[in-house]
Amino acid sequence: QVDERPLRLEPREFGSLVHAILDRLVSDGCSEDQAADRVAEEQRSAIRPPLTIWELQVDEALAHVRRAIESLDHPAEADTWGEVHFGFDPDTPTDGGPWPPSAEVRLGEAKLRGKIDHLALDATTGTAWVTDFKTGNRVLSPSRVLDGCAELQRCLYAVAVSQLVPHVRSI
Questions:
Q1: pTM of the predicted model over 0.90
Q2: What is the maximal distance between C-alpha atoms in the chain?
Q3: How confident is the model at residue 105 (pLDDT cuts 50, 70, 90)?
Q4: In the chain, N or C terminus with fewer CB closer than 10 Å?
Q5: Residue 34, CB-side half-sphere exposure with 13 Å CA sphere
Q6: What pLDDT does residue 89 have?
Q7: Cβ 83 vs Cβ 117: under 8 Å
Q8: What residues have CB less than 8 Å from 73, skipping those under 6 apart?
Q9: Other CB atoms closer than 10 Å to residue 165's CB: what's the count?
Q10: HEC states along the chain?
Q11: Distance CA 128, CA 122 (A)
Q12: CB atoms < 10 A from the CB of 156, how many?
């Protein structure tokens, strides 16, 4: 009998796994290993690849999480949130954030909707850090965020933060 299950998660599924671990890490305040174990256990019933390969994919996702955490450059005293929604229905389930998930963001006549992977706010300095974690091969430097909007997604997140947190002076 041939096992026809895929040997790897699809890129979107892998990205979702990494984001789920990051979200659990921020929302539960646990260690990276604990977050990975909790997410792996929750998703075990929906495992598509064979179990051994699933465990390798969780380990690979955890390596991505560790690199993502190392890349954060905000001060430890900043308030932080993961998966911060804007432009969604009011009853969208979230783990919290500095605004409700239904908060409206406009760019001209267009209403924006999105989820910021990681947001840090330092109220004393009026500084915000917007992080969009990428699980693909492309690495984007923070200096490209607003440099002529070379990377549109983070520019739109910066627009959202500037509209929804009026005291922020620097993103």
A1: no
A2: 63
A3: very high
A4: N
A5: 8
A6: 92
A7: yes
A8: 129, 142
A9: 17
A10: CCCCCCCCCCHHHHHHHHHHHHHHHHHHCCCHHHHHHHHHHHHHHHCCCCHHHHHHHHHHHHHHHHHHHHHCCCCCCCEEEEEEEECCCCCCCCCCCCCCCCCCEEECCEEECEEEEEEEEECCCCEEEEECCCCCCCCCCHHHCCCCCCCHHHHHHHHHHHHHCCCCCEC
A11: 6
A12: 21
Residue 154 has which token pair?
């983070």
Tokens standing for 133? 């974690």
Residue 139: predicted pLDDT:
47
158 φ/ψ angles, rounded to the nearest 5 degrees: -65, -40
Residue with tokens 């915000």: 128
What are 1-35's pLDDT values in tens digits? 766 766 777 888 888 888 888 888 877 778 888 88
| Alpha carbon distance 131, 17 (integer Å) | 17
Reading the block at residue 159, the tokens are: 């627009």
- The tokens describing 151, both together, are 């990377």
Taking alpha carbons only, the member of 64, 76, 86 closest to residue 161 is 86
